[in-house]
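ESCALATION

Customer reports they have been waiting on this structure for their group meeting. Please prioritize. Original submission:
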Amino acid sequence: MTSRNPPKIGIVVLNINQYEHTVNGFRSLAELTYPNSEAVLVDNGSTDACVAQIQDALPELKILRNPTNLGFSEGNNIGIRYCIRTLGCDHVLLLNNDTELDPKFLTCLVDRLEGDDRLAAVAPKIYFYSDRERIWDFGGLYDEETGNLSTIGFKEVDRGQFERSEPQYRC
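Update from on-call: job pushed to the front of the queue and completed.
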């Protein structure tokens, strides 16, 4: 990154009735080395006691509560709007509530995004939870002629074959 202030990253995590996954995910977020991020939890209409439990476990966490389950997209959209309009974030990261993170991953993503004006979005390499050496996702290739999207690296054992970063969307 350059010497200017690092961009502010809003991190949106969606929850519905999942105390344990959500608290563990936020504990992983607390280990991030990136210096300018703020996380919000969007509760998508939980019907159990998890929101109160999460607030007790993570009292500093901002929680946005939807009275009903608005679905994955609208739940995330509420968090995105909050991060941009209220927190003044430059970029927004969407995370599943059961995600465990490498402490440096956000710094790497922001460096890549800020380092290439052609990029509008970046994504990390994602591993299967049950097999930490097998890749779940490393991006995709979009075929404009057919409209098909194919994933890269799905179910492959990570042997370092995807260590370089490059745009995966080809126009």
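Sent to customer with the following note: The beta strands are 9-15, 37-44, 62-66, 91-95, 126-127, 135-137, 140-142, 149-151.
Escalation resolved.
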